[in-house]
Amino acid sequence: MFQTLRKAGGSLVMTVPKAFIDQNGLGEGSQVELHLLGTKMTVEAPSRPRYNLAELMAEMPQGLPRVEGWDEMPSVGLENP
């Protein structure tokens, strides 16, 4: 794939293909990592962290207040029963 460099202020810029943006969940303000090796430049999107409930719960502070009657409260949105 060829890209044309354009002048923007004192820099040269090129566009990032939409497929790369969509595939990696990028948007305006996203950061990517550039790797330079001689005449080659690669762009790497940072990997997204994967969480699971057990890990997230382990990081919660102890002694959080419990809402009495929470389990008996009626649904108010699109919650699944």
In short:
The chain is of the alpha+beta class. It has helices at residues 18-23, 53-58, and strands at residues 6-8, 11-13, 33-37, 40-44.
Query: Helical amount among residues, as a percent range?
Result: 10-25%
Major sheet attributes: 2 strands, antiparallel
CATH topology of one domain: Pemi-like Protein 1, Chain: D
Number of strands: 4
What does this structure look like?
By secondary structure, the protein is an alpha+beta fold. It has a domain at 6-58: Pemi-like Protein 1, Chain: D. 15% of the residues lie in helices and 20% in strands. It contains 2 helices and 4 strands; from the N terminus they run ββαββα. It has helices spanning 18-23, 53-58, and strands at 6-8, 11-13, 33-37, 40-44. The strands form 2 sheets. The chain has a two-stranded antiparallel sheet. A two-stranded antiparallel sheet has the order 3-4. A hairpin with a 2-residue loop joins strand 3 (33-37) and strand 4. It is elongated and about 65 Å long. The termini are far apart. The model has no long low-confidence stretch (mean pLDDT 88).
Write the layout of secondary structure elements.
Elements: E1 6-8, E2 11-13, H1 18-23, E3 33-37, E4 40-44, H2 53-58
Antiparallel strand pairs: 1-2, 3-4
Pick out its properties.
81 residues, alpha+beta, Pemi-like Protein 1, Chain: D, two-stranded antiparallel ribbon
